[in-house]
Amino acid sequence: MDESTRLIQQILELDIRLQRQVYAGWPSTWVEFKWPVGTIRALLLISSGHAETPGQVADLLRVSRTTMTGILDRLESDGLIARSINPDDRRSFALEVTEGGQELVRQIDSWRSEPLRAAMATMDEASLKALLTGIEALTRAMDLRRQHEVVGEG
Predict the structure, then answer these.
(1) Dist CA 36 CA 17 (whole Å)
(2) Confidence (pTM)
(3) Domains and CATH numbers, the chain
(4) How far does Cα 130 stand from its chain's mean position?
């Protein structure tokens, strides 16, 4: 195993450990949350811009169109998304996150960020700078990967 492969594996293992710690520390309100995980995943996909139509969300979540219709009905009735006729394909709908949906996404992001913020507050400045540099590089790589995926779809 070359050094890059070894480093990637070590980073991925640490990421799994980190994510488990973050999610284990989520507030008890998450357990009592009124929306099923699949519904929240759909909302997060729509809000991220990775899915703009019901078919795209269904494909990314690997669920049937019928199941997706039920999920979107719930999100819409709870005021978290709005559906409108897709201008590019009048047989489909365009999905948009409402202000209420954006607020819920901000709340979920906050739940995830808070334990990270608390842990980073204990780190020295040099470690924070190194972490920032690494995360910036990873974000750029992810952005490039996403751009290549989108170009490949067209």
Answers:
(1) 24
(2) 0.73
(3) 3-153 (1.10.10.10)
(4) 24
